């Protein structure tokens, strides 16, 4: 028996299939950082930290023959979101129902995806994650009020990355409201296509950002380390419902601070 204890849950094979498929759909639509960062793992639950490849050597040490240094590591954050599903509703999967109510699962999946993305973009101090916004070497660029000026801002960001010897392609991570304004712009060659041409990479529309980020897509600049990838576990049940949870363990590192520009 593993630590997820799924075999103890009073859920049929058909019920688990519905749960897993819906969780994958929601997570795929909500997780955005994994679309540009290098994902290392999953390495397993026993992976609890990542070596930073450096030693902390105290300056003042006792005057004897043995000196020492302590390895610097970055801990992994273990996240968990609990949710309840109606047992009777899950049993309907066996009866052939194709419209199982899994809203609590969908909410939990959106929450844990938002937690991971927020740590990547804005940092998580308790988990020693600084995040893209704090790590970027570049001065933040202001996103324009008028959609037609967005291309110029993106081009300025691309130029800043190139000046820092960060090669393309480049990806734009942006919130849905700003990208909708870009897509709605009318006049000549579509603005969205001109922006994508300038990037040479992807536009990643994320529900979990409050601004936009221009990031390198060449690889090797951002690393998301997974101990345990997103998984569903069992917590308990009564006669009416079963309590499950979504969990993962991860950390995020910016390996080259010059590879990201904040578009505020």
From TrEMBL:
Entry's transmembrane regions: none
Sorted UniProt keywords: Encapsulin nanocompartment
Cellular compartments annotated: Encapsulin nanocompartment
Major subcellular site: other
One Pfam match: Linocin_M18
GO cellular component terms given for this protein: encapsulin nanocompartment
Record InterPro entries: ENCAP, Encapsulin_nc
Family listed: Belongs to the encapsulin family. Family 1 subfamily.
PANTHER family in UniProt: PEPTIDASE U56 FAMILY, TYPE 1 ENCAPSULIN SHELL PROTEIN
NCBIfam families documented for this protein: encap_f1
Name by which UniProt lists this protein: Putative bacteriocin
Organism from which the protein derives: Kiritimatiella glycovorans
């Amino acid at each position: 028996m593993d630590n997820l204890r799924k075999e103890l849950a009073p859920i049929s094979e058909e019920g688990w299939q519905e749960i897993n498929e819906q969780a994958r759909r929601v997570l795929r639509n909500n997780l955005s950082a994994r679309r540009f960062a290098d994902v290392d793992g999953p390495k397993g639950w026993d992976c609890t930290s990542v070596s930073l490849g450096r030693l902390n050597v105290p300056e003042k040490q006792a005057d004897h023959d043995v000196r020492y240094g302590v390895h610097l590591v970055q801990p992994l954050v273990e996240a968990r979101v609990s949710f309840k599903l109606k047992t009777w509703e899950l049993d309907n999967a066996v009866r052939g129902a194709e419209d199982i109510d899994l809203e609590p699962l969908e909410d939990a999946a959106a929450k844990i995806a938002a937690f991971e993305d927020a740590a990547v973009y804005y940092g998580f101090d308790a988990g020693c994650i600084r995040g893209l916004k704090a790590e970027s070497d570049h001065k933040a660029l202001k996103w324009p009020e008028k959609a037609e000026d967005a291309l110029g801002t993106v081009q300025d960001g691309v130029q800043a990355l190139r000046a820092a010897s960060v090669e393309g392609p480049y990806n734009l991570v942006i919130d849905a409201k700003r990208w909708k304004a870009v897509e709605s712009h009318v006049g000549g060659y579509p603005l969205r296509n001109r922006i994508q041409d300038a990037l040479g990479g992807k536009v990643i529309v994320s529900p979990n950002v409050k601004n936009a980020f221009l990031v390198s897509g060449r690889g090797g600049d951002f690393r998301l380390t997974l101990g345990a990838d997103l998984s569903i576990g069992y917590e308990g049940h009564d006669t009416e419902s079963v309590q499950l949870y979504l969990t993962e363990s991860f950390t995020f590192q910016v390996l080259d601070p010059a590879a990201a520009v904040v578009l505020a």
